[in-house]
UniProtKB/TrEMBL annotation:
InterPro entries: GlmU-like, MurU, NTP_transferase_dom, Nucleotide-diphossugar_trans. This is Nucleotidyl transferase. One of its GO terms (molecular function) is nucleotidyltransferase activity. The keyword Transferase applies. Pfam families: NTP_transferase (PF00483). Keywords: Nucleotidyltransferase, Transferase.
Length: 223
């Protein structure tokens, strides 16, 4: 199975750190943020990767190369800055994503989720399977409810979308106006009851600010 890592954002909330360095290449305990995701995917047996890039994007393939040093194969999908958004970036990269279903993860999350869990999931009558987590302080209201493995827009309790999902390529079919955020597309299909999900109870952090990056640096250094 292939996996795509979304790495095209500008990281505006991370400035000034991202003025000269793309957010996925910001260092955490001596390693670029995106490298933790690559290593976790390879550990799970996923070694065909696609990475999109835009802001200071040329630095990403220069740094990561073709994936040989990570025991994987990396292909790149270059985008104009702010042209596509998340779902749009996936659609733009579909020619590189050959499988019927594939994993997509955000490059700016740091977690201990075992991606091997997604390899055994058969979407069947679903178009997506999302990983959700307990709500962090910066997203107290959550995003989606989860009831008996079914992701819903409303429920007694909402969880936060972890930026990790398994998607059927049919999810992205049709004509779309760009830029297209993934959240907007997912909500349409969640309303149609075609999105399943699971709750990850382990470590998960959205590295959206310099303060959160510093917290992960401290955590990783003391492990």
């Amino acid at each position: 199975m292939q996996a795509m890592i979304l790495a095209a954002g500008q990281g505006k909330r991370m400035r000034p750190l991202t003025e000269k360095t793309p957010k996925p290449l910001l260092p955490v305990a001596g390693k670029a943020l995106i490298e933790y995701q690559i290593e976790a995917l390879v550990k799970a047996g996923i070694n065909e990767l696609v990475i999109n890039h835009a802001w200071l994007g040329e630095q990403i393939p220069t740094y990561l190369g073709n994936g040989e040093k990570y025991n994987c194969n990396i292909q790149y999908s270059a985008e104009p800055i702010d042209a596509y958004e998340t779902a749009g970036g996936i659609i733009h990269a579909l020619p590189l994503l050959k499988d019927e279903s594939f994993i997509v993860i955000n490059s700016d999350v740091w977690c201990d989720f075992d991606y091997q869990q997604l390899l055994s999931i058969k979407l069947q009558n679903k178009l997506a399977h999302l990983v959700l987590v307990e709500n962090p302080a910066h997203n107290p209201q959550g995003d989606f409810a989860l009831e008996q493995g079914q992701v819903k827009l409303r429920g007694s309790k909402k969880y936060t979308f972890a930026g990790i999902g398994l998607y059927h390529r049919a999810l992205f079919a049709g004509n779309h106006t760009m830029p297209l955020p993934l959240g907007r597309l997912l909500k349409q299909h969640i309303a149609n009851m075609t999105v399943s999900g699971q709750l990850h109870s382990g470590l998960w952090f959205d590295i959206g600010t310099p303060e959160r990056l510093a917290a992960i640096e401290k955590l990783q250094t003391h492990q």
